[in-house]
Specification:
This protein is mainly beta. The protein is built from no helices and 10 strands. The chain has strands spanning about 15-25, 30-40, 45-55, 60-75, 80-85, 90-100, 105-115, 120-130, 135-140, 150-160. The chain is globular, with a radius of gyration of 16 Å. The N and C termini lie close together (about 5 Å). About 25% of the residues are buried. The mean pLDDT is about 95. Pfam families: THAP4_heme-bd (PF08768). Its cofactor is heme b.
Length: about 160
């Protein structure tokens, strides 16, 4: 199935990516984590998105699952982008941002939480393709803390998108 032509600015994301990074926040100890992200499409003008992470020990072995999120990435005119993400912890986020070459910068426009979700107020994400690898940094405002670094990772493409 052909990729919708509107997706050309973000088509570089398509595929399965795996790698590792570092997480930390005032409410937790810094740690290494592993991650898998899958960007797909169904021929319509949006990308599907799934991410899962797990805690890694000092040798790089999986210790336990961390977070998971799923959503949709929609390109808009003039290389603007909208991203809708849902988390099983009761949080839904809508990000808006811009695509500049192989760099995507996103900021939360809306955050909705269920009554049982932890306090989460805002996010800022930066994605970029660097030497063929997907790099990203994620800042968040949660649990009474201002927007600050939470996670960063480097992911390698390990597979193409399977329709």
């Amino acid at each position: 199935m052909d990729v919708h032509p509107d997706l050309e600015p973000i088509a570089f994301l398509l595929g399965r990516w795996e790698g590792a990074g570092v997480i930390g926040y005032p409410t937790m100890e810094s740690a290494n984590f592993g991650q898998e992200i899958v960007f797909g499409h169904n021929g319509k003008p949006f990308l599907t998105y799934q991410s899962r992470t797990w805690l890694l020990d000092a040798e790089g072995n999986k210790v336990r699952p961390l977070s998971t999120e799923t959503g949709f990435w929609r390109i808009q005119p003039e290389r603007q982008i909208e991203v809708c993400l849902a988390h099983p912890t009761g949080i839904v986020e809508i990000y808006v941002g811009e695509v500049v070459f192989h760099k995507i910068e996103l900021r939360t426009d809306v955050v909705a939480r269920t009554t049982t979700a932890k306090e989460y107020n805002a996010g800022h994400r930066l994605y970029g393709l660097v030497n063929g690898n997907l790099m990203y940094a994620y800042d968040m405002s949660a649990m009474g803390h201002p927007l600050q670094s939470h996670a960063s990772a480097e992911l390698k493409r390990v597979g193409d998108f399977d329709e």
